[in-house]
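Slack export, channel: ligand-projects

TW: morning all. Re-posting the request from yesterday since it got buried. We need the structure predicted with the small molecule present, not the apo form. The ligand is guanosine-5'-triphosphate; the SMILES is in the block with the sequence. No rush, but it would help planning for next week.
GE: picking it up
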Amino acid sequence: MAPVVIKVAVVGPRGAGKTAYITRLCTGGFSSRYHPADAPVTSTFAESCRRPAPPLRFKLIDVPPGLAVPDHDAVIQMFDRTADVPYESLNASLTAGKPLVLCGNKVDVPGLSKISHPVQAYKNKYGELFDYYDISAKSNYNFERPLLFIARRVLNMPDLEFGPSD
Ligand SMILES: Nc1nc2c(ncn2[C@@H]2O[C@H](COP(=O)(O)OP(=O)(O)OP(=O)(O)O)[C@@H](O)[C@H]2O)c(=O)[nH]1
Ligand SMILES: [Mg+2]
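GE: finished. pasting the full token output, ligand included:
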């Protein structure tokens, strides 16, 4: 079966962990070094699915803040669970009719306080196209869950599972 391509824009403030998350998915590595990005970069993460779902090619677009977001099918909005910065609402044109996953990253760090983001307000606004996950690019906690949610919504296959196709 030919792979289905899903373009995912990964947005969020400086230092949230966008690049670390995408690198973790696409290469399996993690670096504690921080290199602020200055232009969008697209990387590919391939995943097979149990039948009858097709294999998937996620095009993960790492978009630094303040830059135009390239064409996409879904959005991951990331923030840093260790930094209590005010959340930024998303431009409506970014998410219109598209799956949106909010990710609170760096949950490997001990002693985190309660999440400050009004997740329920997002749930009310975006409904079934929205989900929230605590994640960690460092420890891999929940790291494939955002993409599983997106795949299920984009393909309209609520039971889709990643894994070998046979
Ligand atoms: N402890 C911990 N640190 C993380 C995690 N994810 C990223 N970091 C660190 O946070 C810093 C910023 O991560 P980046 O991925 O570069 O952040 P970014 O969102 O791409 O930042 P910009 O390119 O400036 O927009 C780096 O030092 C990472 O190593 C995580 O899950 N846990
Ligand atoms: Mg970056």
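GE: first-pass observations. The chain has four helices and six strands. The pocket of guanosine-5'-triphosphate (ligand 1) is lined by residues 12, 14-20, 31-32, 34, 36-37, 64-65, 105-106, 108-109, 136-138 (CB under 6 Å).
TW: perfect, thank you
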